[in-house]
Amino acid sequence: MAKPGYILLKLVEVGIIFFVILTALFFLFRLSPGDPISKMVDPMLTPEDMAHLIQQMGLDRPMWEQYLIYVKNFFTGSFGVSFHYGEPVATIIADKLKWTLLLFTTSTLLAAFAGVFLGKIAAWHKGSRLDNVMSISALVCYTLFIPWFALLLLWILGFKWGLFPLGGVLTPALWISNASVFARILDVLHHLMLPLLTLFIINLGSYLLLMRSSMLSVLREDYILTARAKGLSEKKIRNKHAARNAALPVITSVGLSLAFSINGGALTEQIFTWPGIGRELIFAVSNNDYPLAQACFLLIALVVLCANLIVDLLYAWLDPRITY
C-alpha cells in the first residue's frame, strides 16, 4: 500500500510539474506567430479602435506583468475572458466539457470493460479457434484509421441506412418544443450512438490485445501453479488470481486514456460535429485566443497528472506486492 509520505511527495511533484506547464504555456502562446486581434476584428476598424481593443485585452502591458496577472487569475479561480467569444473561459469550457466527457469517457470505459473480459477469455483459451478469431479481430480494430472508419460508419449507418443522425448532439426542433425530459435524453443518446460506436470498436482492440498479453504472462507465474495445487477451481484462478494482476497494465492505459480524452478527439469531433473540447481547442489555437487555449491545455495537463497519481495508487491496491 502507498504510504502517506509517498502520497505527499507525489502531490508536491505534481504541483511543481503543473506550475512549470502553467508557465510554459503562457510564453509559448505569446511567442507563437500571429496575434488574436488580426483574426477577430473588422479590417475596416481604425488604428485607434484597434489600439483600444488591444488595451482592453491587456496585450499592451509588458510580458512580465501579463504573466503575473495570468498566474494571479489562475490561483484565484479565474481563467480570464475569451478574446473571440467575449465570455468567461470557465463558462465556455464547462459547456463543451460535458459533451466531451459524455462521449469519450463512456466509450473508453465500455471498451475497457469489454476488452478486459474478452482478453482474459482469449488468453485462457490460447491457441484455440476462439483465441485466433478474437486476436485477429482485435488487431484489425486496433489498426483502423479513425477518420476513415468514422466516415465509413457515418456514410453507411447515417447516410445510406438513416439509422443515426449525421452530426451534432441534439435535434433543435425537439428541444425548442415542449418535449419531455425522457424524449430529450433519447434524442441525445440517438446522436451519441454513432460516434460512441466508432470509438468503442477502435479502443476495444487495444484493450483486448493488452489484456490478453498481460494475462498470458501472468499465467506463467508460480502462484498460479500454487493455486492449482491447492485445488482451486479454474474459474476462480482465472478471475480472482490471474485476471486481477493481469489488469494492471490495462488500468494504466485506461487511466491515461481517460485523462487524454478530456481534450476530446479533435478529428472525431470534427467528423461528427460534436461540440466538445477538442474542436474548441483547435479553434482557440488557430485564432490565438490565449485565455481559452491556455485553459484547455491546463485542464488536460491537470487531469493527466492526477490520472498518473491515481494509477500509481491503484497499483498498490490491486497488487499487495507493490509498496511505496
Please give a structural write-up.
The protein has helices at 4-31, 47-57, 63-75, 89-124, 129-142, 146-160, 172-175, 181-218, 222-229, 234-246, 248-260, 266-271, 277-286, 290-318. The protein is an all-alpha fold. The protein has a domain at 94-287 and 300-313: MetI-like (MetI-like fold, Orthogonal Bundle), CATH 1.10.3720. The protein is globular and about 85 Å long. The relative contact order is 0.15. InterPro entries: BPD_transp_1_N, MetI-like, MetI-like_sf.
Main sheet record:
none
Summarize the amount of helix as a percent range.
over 70%
Strand and helix order: HHHHHHHHHHHHHH
CATH class of one domain: Mainly Alpha
* The CATH superfamily title of one domain: MetI-like
Number of helices: 14
> How far is it from the N-terminal to the C-terminal residue, by CA?
6 Å
Strand-residue proportion: under 5%
Shape: globular
Rg to the nearest angstrom? 24 Å
CATH architecture of one domain: Orthogonal Bundle
Structural class: mainly alpha
Whole-number mean pLDDT: 80
How many strand elements? 0
Features:
324 residues; mainly alpha; MetI-like fold; 14 helices; 73% helix; globular
